Give the backbone structure.
Amino acid sequence: MRHAEQANRLSPIARLLRRLRGEQRGVAAIEFAFVLPILLLLLFAMIQFGFVFVIQTAMSNAAREEARWIALQGGDITGHDVSASTLDRLTPWSEQFSGFTVTSSPPDAPPAADTVYVEISFSLDEIAFGDFIGLFTGETMSVRVAAQIE
């Protein structure tokens, strides 16, 4: 009898909470709702870093190939558009993004008189999808390759 009297004296909210205390339905959905944003953030971060890595590798290969070509020409780039040639080597990335900047130094430039340098820079702002935390905002990725003239 005492329990029945206590139950009648409880407020409707307290009675609802007492009734739901042992209830387990829907717990997995709520836990999933808490974990899902973290899992999505990790997934998109892995995709983003993979994308950056692929572009950096393509930039490195294009700069190396162009520097080697110039070195095999004896450093003479007369009539050769280094920027256009390097961007051709960056296809399909150079067609998809416009943020590539190519610079080269002639063989007589310091620090070594018999070395050619090709540098490619790229603004990461162009490829930062879902950059919620500002990780790539205003960042530039660059690759510089040197080739000795033979």
User: Anything to note?
Assistant: The first strand starts at residue 100 and ends at 105. Residues 2-148 form one domain.
